[in-house]
Amino acid sequence: MHRYRVTPGEDAQIAARDTRDPQGFSGDKTAGRKAMKVLNAELEALQEVLYAEGKQKVLIVLQAMDTGGKDGTIRHVFDGTNPQGVKVASFKKPTPRELAHDYLWRVHPHTPGSGEIAIFNRSHYEDVLVVRVHDLVPEHRWRPRYDHINAFEKQLTDEGTTILKFFLHISKEEQKERLQARLDEPHKTWKFAKGDLAERQLWGSYIDAYEEALTRTSTDWAPWYVIPADRKWYRNLAISTIIVDTLKELGMEYPDPEEGLDDLVIE
Ligand code: AMP
Ligand code: MG
Questions:
Q1: What is the pTM of this model?
Q2: For a substitution probing ligand 1, which of 65, 71, 92 has the most ligand atoms within 8 Å of its CB?
Q3: In what helix (H) or strand (E) does residue 117 lie, and over which residues does it extend?
């Protein structure tokens, strides 16, 4: 999974990366699904000890083009975890009140507390992505944001947060199929927004914006991973593996019981 990491200081090279990894898990969906069950159980157990220990904070950032699979990732990767300890924050178009503040103002309250996992479904990165592509603020305002974001994330990690950032990398062709499916399948039409077609026209500009964002903000303390996401089962497997491996490295433990429990008799 290490090959999906954007090495800090190097170009992200999104265009050169697979959306469909030919080596990854030998392309075997059935074996992949089985492995996913094991990973789900592992994550469930790790999240319980994270919550019980109450020391670590974990932040997971999900970014993707439209139809990239952020929602499906949350549903499948966190399947079985306890909703008490996992919270999702979805960042939409900012409200007038949010816009009246600096762009990190709405983000900070959603960062994880001790023992929690917070998942960002879109994030402060929109402020160097959609904002850049649509010229929502002038370049002299958005360009310094890479540095702010690195500093913000460094501050979070200095205060005990582990940060993982995933770009779900789909091909333009795959997006076409997924948009078409949203039109064709009655239970998916609610997800179709005509605006997504206008965004699709801007594919190249978004890739450019992602390229610079990932290059400038993949750091030792908050690395980006570019996940091949054309195949949903593989995307889930890759992200689960990275999260499980990272949580295992935190060396969490259940807290010691109160003293004197051994002799206790419950009447
Ligand atoms: P969805 O994820 O489909 O619900 O769409 C959310 C929309 O909110 C997307 O079109 C994003 O580009 C937009 N959005 C999120 N954050 C920002 C932001 N900071 N500025 C402008 N638009 C944003
Ligand atoms: Mg949408």
A1: 0.96
A2: 92
A3: strand 117-121
